[in-house]
Amino acid sequence: MTTYEVTLKKEPCDGIFACLTRDPRFVEDDDGLATIDPAGDPVYDGDGEIREEDGDVIATFDDDRIDEARQAAAACPTNAIVVEEVEK
Ligand code: SF4
Fold it and tell me: Which residue ranges are recorded for the region named Disordered (predicted)?
C-alpha cells in the first residue's frame, strides 16, 4: 500500500481524456474537463479523500493503484496530472 496524492490541474487540462483510459478514477466533469471521481471506480476502497483547492482537484489515496495514476499522468499531453507519494 502506498499513500499518494493525485492533483488534477484544471487550468492546463484540455479535455483530451487520455487519462480516463489509463485510470478509471479520472472522469469527465460537467465543465468538459477531467476530474477525479472515486465513486465512479468499482475498486475504490473508501480510504481516500478528495478536495478542491484553487479550482484544482486533489485526491489522497491509500492503496496499490499508484501505477495507474502515474500512467494517467504520463499519458496526459498537457501535464495536468501530478502524482506524489506522501508520508502518512
Ligand atoms: S489527459 Fe490530461 S488534458 Fe486530457 S482530460 Fe486528462 S487531465 Fe485533462
Answer: 31-50
